[in-house]
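> Could you send the Universal stress protein prediction when you get a chance?

Sure thing. Input:
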Amino acid sequence: MLTRILCATDGSRVSERAVAFAVELAKRCKAPLTFLTVITVSAETAARSPFWDTNLLDAGAAQTRHELAAAARLASESGLAGVDYATVQGRHIGKAIAYYAHEHGYDHIVMGSHGATGIERLMLGSVASDVVAAAHCPVTVVR
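Output:
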């Protein structure tokens, strides 16, 4: 029985499908749902870099708010109330998602994946694969 669901979102099309899946899963299981976005560049990191400035950080924060608001809006339109959302900072996105789920007592993770294989997978890596490898609980990967 699922008691707490975490859905990782980054605003991509596959992430939108994962959000829709997580909303339906939460409704069916009557489980609380939290949307999570990982922020890879912190203000401290940006301050030490000549390539980042406050305008870029502000734009990134606005994008994060947009991603989480879109997920929350879909949940609300689907009749799911009490949805929460969170952000976590981490350089390794997959590990950050798995760690957050473990530390906050989630028993299921939902996320999207582009389904890259072969050389594309080797060059780009796979956040979904990293989450599956690091997670303490079941992970549903939506394509």
